[in-house]
């Protein structure tokens, strides 16, 4: 039996993970789920050098994959590195993947979209190489390696092949970051040469941001690949095209491990209020089941969620409805 380490997270994380778990079990998931602690709320009680107890690291090492609820990262010098970044770096999860697809009856003001954002997940500015040189000067080092750039590019082209799409778009600012982003683009081009059936286009990040709100359909059936910070920001912008970041699910993939999580934060102001959208966490769990080979339950969850969206009767506030977290979750279970 496959093992899943389940991190409940902070803020609204525990209630969202509980919603996802109820759906996974209702769909007939066969994996063994191991609850784990991690996050700023645990750290506030226990302190220590990271947001993780040793038991959680052990559980992660022994698991086949991880389902992580949203966690809070404190924006204060001297506090631990985020839970997600820590796991990505520990397990070399170089590809953070966020599908951006319009849901039924949720067309945004700019029309329907369907593309995938692939973000390098372990380096760039998220390498955490910051230094205070004096009271008035601080620096951060943007780490780009040919190894990680090649791996994330390879994932992007393979994702396009899995979806039978014909285009990959590489995002950079190589006209300004002439060494780091040229290394990234050269790595992508080297991978592209081995996939002659897929077109490669490269765009500067500012142009891509403008195109994304001017004519987003030009990116339909494309995989967008870029470095860590650029794609973090752009995937958040892209969530606005499909109504809410509350529906953006994601997976983080390495060579032998994966972590699945909603793309949004922990929204602590809504903790315990039965308010936030469970879709991203539920679909992250469904994608995780697919990764584990449980394709039947995974498809059933996606189908049920799309049906609830299509009906429009049990949607949370961010989708224009009046249902709470539990009510929307129940509606998805009923569709199963």
Main attributes?
Isopropylmalate Dehydrogenase; two-stranded antiparallel sheet; 336 residues; 2 domains; single chain; 39% helix; 18% strand; ten-stranded mixed beta sheet; alpha/beta; 11 helices
Structure description:
The protein is an alpha/beta fold. The chain has two domains: 1-87 and 247-336, 3-Layer(aba) Sandwich (Isopropylmalate Dehydrogenase), CATH 3.40.718.10; 107-242, Isopropylmalate Dehydrogenase (3-Layer(aba) Sandwich), CATH 3.40.718.10. It has helices at 13-26, 40-46, 54-62, 83-90, 146-163, 180-192, 205-214, 228-239, 279-291, 295-311, 325-335; strands spanning 3-7, 32-36, 65-68, 95-101, 114-120, 130-132, 138-140, 167-172, 199-204, 222-226, 249-253, 258-262. The strands form two sheets. Strands 2-1-3-12-11-4-5-10-8-9 form a ten-stranded mixed β-sheet, with helices on both faces. Strands 6-7 form a two-stranded antiparallel sheet. The longest helix is centred in the middle third of the chain and has 18 residues, at 146-163. The radius of gyration is 20 Å and the shape is globular.
Short synopsis of the structure:
39% of the residues lie in helices and 18% in strands. The protein contains 11 helices and 12 strands.
